[in-house]
Amino acid sequence: MRLVATLATIIALSGICLLFIVIGGFGLQTLASNPSLTLHFGWNPKANEFGVLTMLANSLTLSFSTLLVAFPLALGVASFLILPPKSKINKILQGYLSFLVRLMGSIPTVLYAFGALFLLVPLLREAFGGSGRNLLACICVLSFVILPTMILLLESGLKKPFMHQYFNGLALGMHSFETLIFVVIPKAKSVLIGAFLLGFGRAFGDTMIALMLSSNALIFATSLFEPLRVLSAHIALITANESIGNAYNALFISGFLLILINAFLALIARGILHRNSQNL
Fold this sequence. Notes:
Blueprint: H1 2-33, H2 35-38, E1 43-44, E2 49-50, H3 53-82, H4 88-106, H5 109-128, H6 135-171, H7 176-184, H8 189-205, H9 208-213, H10 231-239, H11 246-279
Antiparallel strand pairs: 1-2
Helix pairs in contact: 1-11, 3-6, 3-8, 4-6, 5-6, 6-7, 6-8, 8-11, 10-11
């Protein structure tokens, strides 16, 4: 069994390294040949402009905005799942909520986006005007997509220290939620940061939600009701129409930036969570 796990790890690492080499090699080659071709904010192939920085800025805007909504929700749900149930109804609710969180994590992203086209987008169109496909629509749906990842990480990271401090809190006359809020969470900064970074990476790399719900306009979104195009959706759109030329070559820069930022965030988050698990 250990041999199978070792082989699977080697194959996975080899695939990741190959991906880095291919995308990074072509991306750095394109960047080295003409840095001004892609590292600016204008994308207009007719004018020989292939800048990807607007899409990168939109990806960062969407990711941070989504985390502002999703992270407090994830922390609240994780806290509810950790706290000891005070009644049978509470225990039943915790069981159903835990099942729902895991079910949400197993649903393909495209189904969230497809459902939002018929349920959320018309509501936004009626309420705020426009097409309804904008930054706000992406934030609403993407929040649901990244919630399971953060909830499960927060629950697993906070539950063990909470159980250690639970009886100490009772001895001091504290309620269970007071122990969690005032004792456990302030000392679990590494768990919070790790969950935040992994949620951010999940939001930053998502393709289908932004592709289907943002109208993919080549502008920098400065309002919740403006359309936008993110880096991952830009790659999907251009590869569907281009196979050669500067527009196609610029995609390697986009892919390199995407994989570099995601890998960086994942490594930091994993390192933080690993160090926290060793300190418990």
